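Whiteboard transcription, Tuesday session. T.W. wrote the structure tokens on the left side:
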């Protein structure tokens, strides 16, 4: 006997009911990802008033986009010439760099290069020196060279400089 469309059931639940329940459940992750991407793109385009972001302008593409081009290949008969293809500063030690058009110099090198670092305040180990002496905590810098901190290079810092 052939049942009419809409009266089929699976585990006692009609097909229409299953579709009404499953359809939103299937769409929810896609909608959540779309909203997350939308929020990320909106936040990326917001600039604080009176500030400029350190790095290339959003309309300028990286100077490394054509680094594999044949024009940069040195032939055996050519004498190599040196030039700067792209310039990066790393505002936070061990984190990703920021490509810049030019870099000012200060007493320590490029301005904004490795001016910040991550550090962790660790408790001092207990000593048997004096019972009244309080152990002093110690700051320890965290860099990608230390085991467990290799992913610091994925942190993309933004530095906003006050105009004027």
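and on the right, the sequence the group agreed on:
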């Amino acid at each position: 006997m052939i049942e009419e469309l809409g009266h089929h059931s699976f585990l006692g639940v009609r097909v229409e009911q299953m579709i009404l329940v499953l359809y939103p459940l299937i769409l929810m992750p896609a909608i959540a990802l779309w909203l997350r991407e939308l929020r990320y793109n909106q936040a990326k385009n917001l600039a604080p008033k009176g500030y400029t972001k350190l790095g290339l302008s959003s309309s300028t593409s990286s100077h490394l986009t054509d680094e594999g081009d044949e024009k940069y290949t040195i032939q055996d008969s050519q004498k190599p010439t040196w030039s700067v293809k792209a310039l990066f500063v790393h505002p936070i030690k061990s984190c990703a760099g920021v490509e810049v058009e030019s870099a000012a110099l200060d007493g320590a090198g490029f301005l904004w290069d490795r001016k910040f670092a991550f550090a962790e305040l660790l408790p001092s180990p207990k000593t048997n020196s004096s019972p009244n002496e309080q152990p002093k905590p110690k700051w320890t810098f965290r860099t990608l060279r230390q085991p467990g901190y290799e992913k610091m290079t994925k942190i993309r810092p933004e530095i906003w400089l006050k105009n004027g």
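Someone added at the bottom: The radius of gyration is 29 Å.
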